Amino acid sequence: MKRKFKNIPLMVILAITGLLAACAQDEQMNDAGWQILFDGTNVDQWRGYKTDAFPEKWIIDGDTLFFNSSQSGGSGSGDDIISKDQYGEFELMLEWKVAPGANSGIFYHVVEDDKFENVYYSAAEMQVVDNDGHPDGKIIQHQAGDLYDMISSSVDASKPVGEWNQVRIIVEGNNLQHWLNGQKVVETTMWDDNWAALIKDSKFATWPDFATSKVGHIALQDHGDPVWYRNIKIKKLD
Fold first, then answer.
1. CA 38, CA 164: separation in Å to the nearest integer?
2. Structural domain contains residue 67
3. Does residue 83 contact residue 218 with C-beta atoms inside 8 Å?
4. Entry pTM
5. Is 53 helix (H, G, I), strand (E, B) or coil?
6. Mean pLDDT, all residues of the chain
7. Residue 210 domain-assigned (yes or no)
8. What is the pLDDT of residue 9?
9. 47 CB-near residues (< 8 Å, 6+ apart)
């Protein structure tokens, strides 16, 4: 027997629609307070830096977010992506892998402002790189897991190129931790005399307002090389 729905009140339809939308939003959070930034199904939590659009060079490839370097204009072409939301104190978890000789980066507390041409002008970075195949992999403080150009990892915890690396970045109070594959590789304090000294001794010494913001976006870098990210989630700690 055919069922007829034409007499269903409009208010019921609207209520069901609203419930379904709420359930979809709830799926972005789990019981532990994690917000899903990427699970392989969509890029709704991301956009380009200084644009509402999502760069075409980043594509969903299976369950991964892949930077398609074949469409890039070259190294550092500027198609970095940022989280739509901003975060102060947080725990970020994700996985990454790179192609041979590839380079990328994970940035936090990114500020969108006309005075910052790219994400790296305002924000600290956890380095993502093929240590063996990229020139940066031979430079102290430029290796996988490092607080880029500021602090070297305590150990090389990175996996061989093509294998997945697990990341945790934690900012709680002014304490910063980088974890790579289950090992804490960087720990320091932010926004104090120690932080100022680290910046002063880095390539960022003359960059106005570098890494001074306590709130900002998460960013994944277009460095012109193939890189994959997956299972990206974040939990606010403030």
1. 16
2. yes
3. yes
4. 0.86
5. coil
6. 89
7. yes
8. 58
9. 53, 54, 81, 82, 84
Express each pLDDT in 24-76 by its tens digit.
Answer: 544 555 668 999 999 999 999 999 999 999 999 999 999 999 999 886 444 44
For the stretch 33-37, contacts whose Cβ atoms lie closer than 8 Å and that sit 24 or more positions apart, written own/partner, are 33/235, 33/236, 34/93, 34/233, 34/234, 34/235, 35/85, 35/233, 35/234, 35/235, 35/236, 36/232, 36/233, 37/83, 37/94, 37/218, 37/232, 37/233, 37/234
* DSSP helix/strand/coil, 42: coil
Provide the domain count of the chain.
Answer: 1
Domain region containing 139: 31-236
b/e for 85-98, b at 16 or more Cβ within 10 A?
Answer: ebbebbbbbbbbbb
In a domain, 188, yes or no: yes
**The two three-digit tokens of residue 134, written as one number:** 């990229």
Distance (Å, whole) CA 182 – CA 184? 7
**Tens-place pLDDT, residues 140-165:** 999 999 999 999 999 999 999 999 99
**Locate tokens 């997956």: which residue?**
230
CATH of the domain at 191: 2.60.120.560
Task: Select from 117, 118, 107 the least CA-distant residue to 218.
Answer: 107
Q: Are 229 and 102 spatial neighbours (Cβ–Cβ below 8 Å)?
A: no
pLDDT in tens, 76-87: 447 999 999 999
Residue 83 CA to residue 110 CA, distance in Å, equals: 9
Mode of pairing for the β-strands spanning 227-236 and 64-67 = antiparallel
pLDDT of residue 2: 47
- Provide the 10 A C-beta neighbour count for residue 21: 10
The answer to whether residue 109 sits within a structural domain is: yes
